[in-house]
Amino acid sequence: MMKRILVLLLLGAAATPLAAQSAPDLNARVTKVEKELRAVQRKVFPDGQPLEPEITPPPRVAEPLGSPASNPIADLTARVDALESQIRALTGQSEQNAHRIGQLEDQVKQLVADAQARAAAPVAPPTLAPAEEPAAPAVERPSTGDAAEDGYIYGFRLWQARNYAEAETALKQVADKYPKHRRASFAQNLLGRAYLDDGKPALAAVALYDSYKKWPKGERAPESLYWLGEALIALKKPADACKVYAQFDDDYGATAPAALKTQIAGGRKKAKCA
Length: 274
Fold this sequence. Notes:
68% of the residues lie in helices and 0% in strands.
């Protein structure tokens, strides 16, 4: 699409050779715009998806008979100005997103370090209960022939039964072993929730950030950002939670279901976001 726009612009300039001679720098501007669009495309769409500029020629308005024709160079210059304006806007948005994601990555690294330090600390032996507690009910493992599906459903049932340790193991196996399966996003998200329910908000934050980072288009990616905010609030990091909610707006605000948007609004209120 970008190439087509530039070709049309250049063909428009070629149709008026005498006028083009009065603007010798126009070709240089068009070349510069083309290079900048390619640079923005590589930055905003690193996976090679095409950039579709939202620039269209202005609608033609019928002029009274006898009025002088519009200057083609003026029209072409206006369209190049519009393209340059869009490049500046795209570049600015890309830099803002990169900065915000960089901040989230730094926060997750710190959370990982905190979680590792806590895991390495000595743990006091548990106090024996006066009477033996009843054993947890058995959880049925499904067998549909789809290993990833079966693993996720089993982990989900363990989580429902509040058998968090086994649920964490089962869900992590699904996400690690079947990263391209549809259920990978589900498993990683539920892994974070299991950690959160298990009183491990630092591990929950790491797992939920990974759910968003590794599967940004996964079915549970938007929900993972909500629960990441909850984990950060539990860690007494409300300002970081507010940054996560802002990232949710940028990535999923236009497509997320109403119920999830309501949850995000509640998280913002809890974190006292500006």
